[in-house]
Amino acid sequence: xxxxxxxxxxxxxxxxxxxxxxxxxxxxxxxxxxxxxxxxxxxxxxxxxxxxxxxxxxxxxxxxxxxxxxxxxxxxxxxx
Length: 80
What we know:
The protein is an alpha+beta fold. It contains three helices and four strands.
């Protein structure tokens, strides 16, 4: 089971704009934003690049966790 955690799009100023899934808590969102991509990948998170067939130059990715959101929260808490 994979859980969609968030989708991230990069704006023209190269800032990431996160859209988190409803089941992700505020605390988990803050931890995910503060950690590097490499650290999250080591924890099992998957990053899948997003493309658009209608609009060129879309930069973004989706973040998935291979498990239940409760498992993800426990793994993030162990990180700190």
